[in-house]
Amino acid sequence: MAPRRPARDLLPEKMLARFEEMGFDLSRFVPALLRPPSQAFRINTLKGDRDRVLTSLSHLEPEPCGWNSLVFRVKKRLKLGNLIEHFLGLIYAQDSSSTIPVTVLDPQPHEQILDMSAAPGSKSTQIAAAMRNTGLLVANDVSPGRIPSLTGNLDRSGVLNTVVTRLPGQAYGYIATERFDRVLIDAPCSSEGTLSRSFRTLEIWSESAIKRLSATQRNLIMSAYYSLKPGGVMVYSTCTFAPEENEGTVSYLLKKFPEAIVEPINLEGLNTQPGFSEWRGEAFNPAVKNILRLFPHEHDGEGFCVARITKPKR
Amino acid sequence: MRSKDHEAEAIARALASLSERFGIDPGYFRSYHLFTRRNDVWCSSRQAGEAEFPQIVRRGLRIARVFEHSVRPTTNAAQLFGHLVKRNRIELSEHETRLFLAGKTQDIHLAEGEVGECVTGVTGGFVVAFHKGYALGIGLLKENKLKSQVPRSRRVLSSFSPSEKRSEEG
């Protein structure tokens, strides 16, 4: 039998060098990055009562995630999509980290909310449930090929308060200026945090791809800020570690709008790190330390980065 | 383009059908926005119904398909509003549920008097199938045969959760 290749051999040298530059201990970081985290699900309160759903899923021995009473991890390996509870829309199978941006956004009933890159719908359905199907949720995605998965998940989850649009997110700053109470930008990114799920990101990953994505993210975050009402809240999130796509993007917004506030995020039961203060000689705005970073060797979930930003009232 | 009268008529037919067949109070939908697209009746929150944006793909949820001689509620509507259904409900066993979710037609053994013109029982036509109190979707009941109306894209061909397997095996 051939000896097992070390996990780090599966990743490009340039990627490993960047991770090392970020200060990660590769002997701990890389195996954790490539190891699938525990499966997780979120209970959809539009369709079912939390306790009743939990009772019917007790055989899975779900473990609560401290930061959100509706999110549970499952240690057993099984296809959650085959459960009848999934068919009924009582649960949504998603990585535990990906439930954090909406938890931080904290949507309320009767608000007007924009989910700028909504497909395949895990976060839109979470927002709609928090809004109790009231108000308006605009679930936008620019990619026509991703719309069916979005609408399918909205249907299964019983979402009624949503308008689905197919526009570049950059357009919202112009067509809906100061319209929304809250905006979520789960930005297209280099997806380094999801390598345990798929190696597809390696097909597009490169330093130049990071630069290109970072330019798109800057346009999106500006558009989101324009579309936010004074006093409104937006959450910017990615599933990547690249500082250019996280602290760099938020710093860019703060340079253009120094009045924007990056708020500290306090969630129970999470082992988090603050945002990077600098990268490759570029010092970021000190406020980006309030960005929440999740690393797979410290947290049972995919790598994630989340910033909560408020637009002050006039 | 469909006239306003045509739209109002389709919505009225859908609501009347939901009321007559399933005992759902039409007043329940007063706080929602109902509208039509082609032969379908859709339901959304009021704000989502009135919002104007470019490039809208869709809004809300399709709740019923209106045909010339009948109205068929959608699986999604049955699941969301199933708790309002007062008549023409059928509770399915584990095995029957599995067949229903796979989109199959199956023999259904209702107690005597449940099929036919019995006022209080289940009559032939569209019914809402339930399992353990949860609405699964719409079935077409005809002469003791239940034809699942679960759309192809929603069908579950593999088995359920392990607990249900265990309880059946045990």
CATH-assigned fold name of chain A? Rossmann fold
Number of DSSP strands of chain A? Answer: 15
| Coarse morphology of chain A | globular
The appropriate CATH architecture of chain A is 3-Layer(aba) Sandwich
Oligomeric state of this protein: heterodimer
What profile does the largest beta sheet of chain A have?
Answer: 9 strands, mixed
Level-2 CATH architecture of the largest domain in chain B: Roll
Q: Give the total of domains of chain A.
A: 1
CATH superfamily of chain A: Vaccinia Virus protein VP39
How would you portray this structure in words?
The complex is a heterodimer of chains A (314) and B (170). Chain A is an alpha/beta fold. Chain A has one domain: 3-Layer(aba) Sandwich (Rossmann fold). Helix content of chain A is 30%, strand content 22%. Chain A contains eleven helices and 15 strands. Chain A has helices spanning 13-21, 26-34, 50-56, 84-87, 100-105, 122-130, 147-156, 172-175, 201-204, 207-227, 247-256, and strands spanning 39-43, 63-65, 68-74, 91-93, 112-115, 136-140, 162-165, 180-186, 228-238, 261-263, 273-274, 278-279, 282-283, 292-294, 304-310. In chain A, the strands form three sheets. In chain A, strands 5, 6, 7, 8, 9, 10, 11, 14 and 15 form a nine-stranded mixed beta sheet that branches. Chain A has a four-stranded antiparallel beta sheet with strand order 2-3-1-4. In chain A, strands 12-13 form a two-stranded antiparallel sheet. In chain A, α10 packs across α11. The longest helix of chain A is centred in the last third of the chain and has 21 residues, at 207-227. The relative contact order of chain A is 0.14. The model of chain A has no long low-confidence stretch (mean pLDDT 95). Chain B is of the alpha+beta class and 170 residues long. Chain B folds into two domains: 4-76, Roll (Nuclear Transport Factor 2, Chain: A); 87-154, Nuclear Transport Factor 2, Chain: A. Helix content of chain B is 28%, strand content 30%. Chain B contains five helices and ten strands; from the N terminus they run αββαβββαβαββββα. Chain B has a five-stranded mixed beta sheet with strand order 6-8-9-10-7. In chain B, strands 1-2-4-5 form a four-stranded antiparallel beta sheet. The longest helix of chain B is centred in the N-terminal third of the chain and has 19 residues, at 4-22. Chain B is globular and about 50 Å long. The termini of chain B are far apart. Mean pLDDT of chain B is 86; it is low at 115-120 and 162-170. The A-B interface holds A 46-48, 56-60, 78-79, 82-85, 87-90, 112, 133-138, 147, 151-152, 154-156, 158-167, 171, 175-176 and B 32, 43-45, 47-48, 51, 53-62, 76, 79-80, 97, 101, 131-132, 134, 136, 153-154, 156, 158-164, 166.
